[in-house]
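2024-03-11 09:14:02 INFO worker-7 job=invfold-0412 stage=load source=structure_tokens
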């Protein structure tokens, strides 16, 4: 398996339990030795779809020790007191905030305990599909390692190296649509007493028309704030990342647009300078497998914009589906084809919903009529 991120580690557990020999190759270092080098989206919203998959791997309990319940959205508009819009009728219908690093570590430990072999600092660099040999580059000394395989599973994320290698053998029908908006992460630390600075059991949103901030809680009593903003300003439009040239301009922008959020971020300048602007996009892929030799799942097959908080949840569902199809088919090609047929329509639906929710979160959560309608639906 290529990639020991979220999907790779979970699938490692599921496949080992079915008796498969599993080698997980990860281009980053071992997070247990060096700390987590995650890179993007520090925490994630875990929903029932993802928890269902975690339960199938007996990983739910260990993961939920790090999770914080989010009962609904807490909307910050103008000078009004923020109000909670519940996601469901009660605490049985909620989502959870989990730190990416904690989640990955828990799943890696369980994969190893189940017997998966973990290989860190080894990034896939090429594949000979005829001789079934994968080539890995060692990040520590630049050397190359050739590894024979029966089948490769690509859980190596949106920029999948396995997808690129497969594409050289078969046109996968790949298309990426990048959003005009990017994102930047900032941190709300604990308060002076070591507690949360704002309501912890909520996903906070500061909607501002064409851009917004959100904040999700972490179990060390911090929040990760994410600003979503256009990369470039179109003529006559509002602010954009390319117009905010330094930290002073960033502060001025926050003072004007997000004063209540800014007051919660004491190291604003440090965070702004340290954290890059991330790209967001949707990956559409016609073919997810190369007969019985390779298959893609998670972001490698269907990366999506994060506005429904379902990318990881969907990747986890893929893991259960692939394990189930491997149980149901005697041959790998049949299992991979059935997996693709099962999951492609679902992934496409979630990708569409994620784009739709982007528009909703951006433009409608401060819409009084909409809020009234939602309140009536929930009453
Ligand atoms: P990844 O998590 O990207 O893991 C891929 C792994 O492969 C990494 O460990 C990487 O180092 C490794 N790798 C890459 N290349 C190679 C190589 N050549 N060789 C070996 N290893 C390699 N989803 C949600 O469900 N809820 C959310 O709230 C949410 N919020 C998000 C917020 C943002 C800002 C973003 C960008 C995404 C968000 N997502 C969310 C989506 C979620 O992050 C992804 O869908 C999820 O990480 C996909 O998991 P994955 O295992 O497929 O890929």
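2024-03-11 09:14:09 INFO worker-7 stage=emit residues=379
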């Amino acid at each position: 398996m290529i990639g020991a991120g979220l999907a790779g580690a979970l699938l490692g557990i599921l496949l080992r339990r079915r008796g498969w020999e599993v080698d997980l190759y990860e281009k980053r270092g071992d997070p247990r030795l060096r700390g987590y080098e995650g890179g993007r989206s520090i925490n994630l919203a875990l929903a029932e779809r993802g928890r269902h998959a975690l339960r199938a791997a007996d990983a739910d309990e260990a993961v939920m020790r790090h999770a914080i319940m989010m009962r609904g959205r807490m909307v910050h508009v103008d000078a009004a007191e923020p109000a909670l819009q519940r996601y469901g009728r009660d605490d049985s219908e909620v989502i959870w905030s989990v730190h990416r690093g904690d989640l990955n570590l828990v799943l890696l430990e369980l994969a190893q305990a189940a017997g998966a072999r973990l290989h860190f600092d080894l990034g896939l660099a090429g594949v000979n599909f005829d001789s079934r040999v994968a080539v890995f580059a060692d990040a520590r000394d630049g050397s190359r390692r050739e590894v024979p395989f029966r089948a490769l599973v690509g859980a190596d994320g949106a920029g999948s190296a396995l997808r690129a290698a497969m594409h050289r053998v078969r046109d996968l029908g790949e298309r990426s649509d990048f959003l005009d908006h990017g994102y930047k992460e900032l941190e709300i630390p604990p308060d002076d007493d070591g507690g949360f600075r704002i309501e912890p059991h909520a996903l906070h949103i500061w909607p501002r028309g064409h851009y917004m901030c959100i904040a999700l809680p972490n179990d060390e009593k911090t929040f990760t704030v994410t600003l979503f903003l256009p990369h470039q300003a179109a003529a006559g439009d509002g602010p954009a990342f390319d117009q905010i040239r330094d930290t002073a301009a960033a502060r001025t922008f926050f003072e004007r647009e997000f004063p209540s959020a800014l007051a919660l971020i004491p190291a604003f300048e440090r965070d702004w300078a340290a954290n890059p602007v991330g790209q967001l996009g949707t990956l559409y892929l016609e073919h997810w497998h190369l007969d019985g030799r390779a298959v893609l799942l998670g972001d490698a097959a269907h990366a999506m914009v994060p506005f429904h908080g379902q990318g990881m949840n969907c990747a986890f569902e893929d893991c259960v589906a692939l394990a189930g199809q491997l149980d149901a088919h005697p041959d790998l090609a049949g299992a991979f084809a059935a997996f693709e047929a099962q999951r492609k329509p679902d992934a496409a639906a979630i990708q569409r919903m994620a784009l739709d929710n982007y528009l909703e979160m951006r433009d409608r959560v401060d819409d009084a009529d909409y809020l009234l309608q939602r309140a009536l639906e929930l009453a």
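2024-03-11 09:14:09 INFO worker-7 stage=report msg="DSSP finds 13 helices and 18 strands in the chain."
2024-03-11 09:14:10 INFO worker-7 job finished
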